Amino acid sequence: MKKGLLFFSILLAFAGLLAGCGSSSATNAEGVVEKVTIGYFPNINHVPAMVAKAEGYYQEQLGEDIEIEYKTFPDGAAFMTALKTGEIEAGLVGPGPAMNNYTTGTDVNIIAGGSTGGTVILARDGSGIETAEDLAGKTFVTPRVGCTHDVQFETYMKEELGMTSQRIGGEMIHTTGPPAQYQAMFETEKVDVAVAPEPWASVLQQETGAKVIINSTEVSWGTTLPASVLVASGELIESNPDLIQKIVNAHKDATAFIAENPEEAKTITINDIKEETGQELSKEVIDRSWENIGFTYEVDADAVQAFGDSSYDLKFLKEQPDFSDLIDTQFID
């Protein structure tokens, strides 16, 4: 009797675990969409999602019968896990996580661009680093191993200076951490260099006196590589292209709003980042950050492939990638 009860309890627990790993219940039993969840990161490369959220563009496109939910993520790995498990239907992520997951068989497609630029490399005040040539033996931080910013930085260092990280036998020491924590990491001298997406690069300059050693236009693909891309699963694209078109339309509306109303977009950004991270950024920081970012829904496929090739060269990827089917531009053409 006790064994039977134990088995039944385990069965119930396992069923609960499966339910917890399931989707966000975007559709009901009849297959009708009831809720759409959009993911993004609380940084300036993801402003289109913040604007679409604040201005209600997804609600306008999808209609009042569909509940719209937003989820923020600390890094690309968490975002991609949410996409794979159906926790989100679409959202903005760096091209690095999208490409890395695509090469391992994840059902993901880039359906629009989000932004370009915004990756800045800064040295901690007191680190003794004056130029990128001084980085041998120094510790640098990126949000994640193999993330967009990491690949941009390591590509630049290898191609321009012949310098690599200890991960592949080089001189630079790599660590990772959320960009919102970079200021504390500088102040406690845990790292020497930050590979920082905006607005955290501007925060480091203002709050710690950090020195820019590689700016957003100098770092590899600084003006051409998408800094964020809008992605969805291939399954959702195939099963509900009308839904995907509406999601892309809302994203395009947000991109147009940013171009036409930059000051309002900056206010939205300040408020959203404060809400999601608890950190209130100054207008000065946002203004400085804005200068390093471009917002576009177009995607440079050549830059994406070159980025992937370099990821392979740097041993972030195990096989030479082919991204000819990763980008699906039918919804922006």
Automatic annotation (TrEMBL):
Coiled coil: none annotated. CDD domains: PBP2_NrtA_CpmA_like. InterPro entries: ABC_SsuA_sub-bd, NrtA/CpmA_ABC-bd_dom, Solute-binding_3/MltF_N. PROSITE patterns: PROKAR_LIPOPROTEIN. The keyword Membrane applies. It holds the Pfam family NMT1_2. One of its GO terms (molecular function) is ATPase-coupled transmembrane transporter activity. Residues 1-26 form the signal peptide. It is found in: Cell inner membrane; Periplasm. The keyword Metal-binding does not apply. Its main location: membrane. Keywords: Cell inner membrane, Cell membrane, Lipoprotein, Membrane, Palmitate, Signal, Transport. Belongs to the bacterial solute-binding protein SsuA/TauA family. This is Aliphatic sulfonate ABC transporter substrate-binding protein.
